[in-house]
Design a protein that fits this description.
Layout (H helix, E strand, L loop, with lengths): L17 E5 L4 H12 L3 E6 L13 E5 L5 H15 L4 E4 L27 H21 L7 E4 L18 H20 L6
Parallel strand pairs: 1-2, 1-4, 2-3, 4-5
Helix pairs in contact: 2-3, 3-4
Amino acid sequence: MTEFLITDDSLTGLKGKVIIVTGGCSGIGLSTVQLLFSLGASVIGADLQEPPEGTVSSAQFTFHKTDVTKWHELVGLFKKAIELHGHVDHVLANAGVGPRTNYVNGIELDDNGDPKEPTSFTLDVNLKGTINTATLAIHYMRQNPDGGSLVINSSATGLQRFRAVDYGKCLPHHIRGCIIEKEKWCHIDSGYGTQS
């Protein structure tokens, strides 16, 4: 298996940068936020809940309550970052949730005994929220003379065989396809590209 290593030296360029992290107040997102402000970055952590008390104690951190399934809240997130710092350098689309529906053995029935439509919550957060975050990142970072970068965090479960328990496993494939199309679009439209 190919190994991808990130050294501390390769991260020194993040000092003084403005970085938005969705899903930044727990799990991998919170650990990333802590690393970023230890490197001197200004970080806007977007999440539904504030980070646990005592986990983030830096003046370089701003919490912004954001539901990534709501477009207007994502727009508000980017506008807040620009209001505070004048621009956005990097965006980490990290918000995500685990399975909420079992498409094989767990379909619910309504009062008439008819199948109820399964929740689309996983799709809304992991796919729609990620695509909308990426769309806004590209829009706002185009306003920077130096551009910026977009990182999309995705689950490795998308590389496993689909067992129809939840559509969450196919989402990394959808996200990758969308990013490939955005790469082509960015390059054609503006003369610079993105990488995935």
